[in-house]
Design brief:
Quinone Oxidoreductase, Chain A, domain 1; Rossmann fold; 2 domains; 11 helices; alpha/beta; binds zinc ion
Length: 343
């Protein structure tokens, strides 16, 4: 089978690998869609943000947002069968700790990540534990399924925790794929959405996805504008998807008294002023990352029944043969969501 490898230094190799065989409790999936993600760029550049020693070898096939058709099941697999359409939940856990039993596999001390620790979806076939197979209804495309396993699921769970509703005005900072998913989910929950970014092209995308207002924070003061748009109160909730210190601070400043802020964009350090930005305002601030596996059915129902256009986040589709071009464009932030597709 054909597969992508990242030897490091922004190099992309297409290699031939034998089709893997599913072991007990595993399934073999013929990949039909595999989405690129900003976190893939850490592999592309040779400094992975998650994963262990195996990840550092450059021999692991990337791709942690995958969907396809089950073609073979290993011993003991009963819940999934050949022919099933599935997406893959990216976190593999020990299966027995409290977090695994709660469905928060990414919180397991021994968790492993598809496409980082174990071979991922940027290949003709991918192996996954049967437990990680997320069933796709016929009404959802493989592409939609792939995208839903990360950004859309993360935003769904984040906004559920923030209790976003139709009475809320939500500001979303950073309209890459994660922010785009945030707009779709917030609109689906009925909220008024204000998108903030430094690029007009991304704000144009935000409008197409349904944002009610857009703010270019490179040409205007985002906090002042957000206050002006909310009668001086500030927004009910702010979600930072950029990980940028300026946006993280603006999110805290733009939230109203008793408001809520979620940090979703990855970030190693930032300076804030807790007294003025959080304590005096009785703010609720959460860190958000991924979603519990048990929430998949609820997420699928939400997307299907409310006709959330998750496909709209996808701006580019490539075959695996054009992987180098795909990663280069994505790295240069010239795209929305990019997906590898198979005929
Ligand atoms: Zn991802
Ligand atoms: Zn566990």
């Amino acid at each position: 089978m054909k597969a992508v490898l990242f030897p490091g230094g922004k190099q992309v190799q297409i290699v031939e690998r034998p089709v893997p065989q599913p072991e007990a409790d595993e399934v073999l999936i013929r990949t039909r869609a595999s989405a690129l993600c900003r976190s893939d760029m850490s592999l592309y550049n040779g400094n992975p943000i998650v994963g262990g020693d195996a990840t550092l070898t450059g021999q692991i096939i990337p791709g942690h947002e995958a969907a396809g058709e089950v073609v073979q099941v290993g011993q003991g697999v009963t819940e999934v069968k050949a022919g099933d359409r599935v997406a893959v939940y990216l976190a593999f856990g020990c299966g027995s700790c409290t977090h695994c039993r709660n469905g928060d596999l990414m919180l397991c001390d021994q968790w492993k990540c598809l496409g980082f620790d174990l071979n991922g979806g940027d290949a003709d076939y991918v192996i996954a534990p049967a437990y990680n197979c997320l069933k796709l209804p016929d009404t959802l495309s493989f592409e939609a399924g792939a995208v839903m396993t990360d950004m859309v699921g993360t935003q769904y769970h984040t906004q559920k925790r923030l209790d976003i509703s139709g009475t809320d005005t939500v500001a979303i900072f950073g309209i890459g794929p994660m922010g785009s998913a945030g707009i779709l989910i917030a609109k689906g929950r009925g909220a008024r959405v204000i998108a903030v970014d430094v690029l007009d092209s991304r704000l144009e995308m935000a409008k197409q996805l349904g944002a009610d207002e857009v703010v270019n924070s490179s040409t205007e003061n985002a906090v002042e504008r957000l206050r002006a748009l909310t009668g001086g109160r500030g927004v009910d909730a702010a979600i930072d998807c950029s990980g940028h210190p300026v946006a993280q601070n603006a999110a805290l400043d733009a939230a109203r008294k008793l408001g809520k802020v979620a940090f979703v964009g990855e970030s190693r350090s930032t300076t804030i002023n807790p007294s003025d930005q959080m304590i005096r305002k009785l703010l609720t601030v959460i860190g958000a990352w991924y979603f519990p596996i048990g929430e998949w059915t609820e997420l699928v129902n939400f997307v299907v029944e409310r006709q959330i256009a998750v496909d709209k986040m996808i701006t580019h589709r490539f075959s695996l043969d054009h992987a180098a071009e795909a990663f280069q464009l994505f790295d240069q932030r010239q795209t929305g969501k990019v997906v590898f597709v198979w005929d």
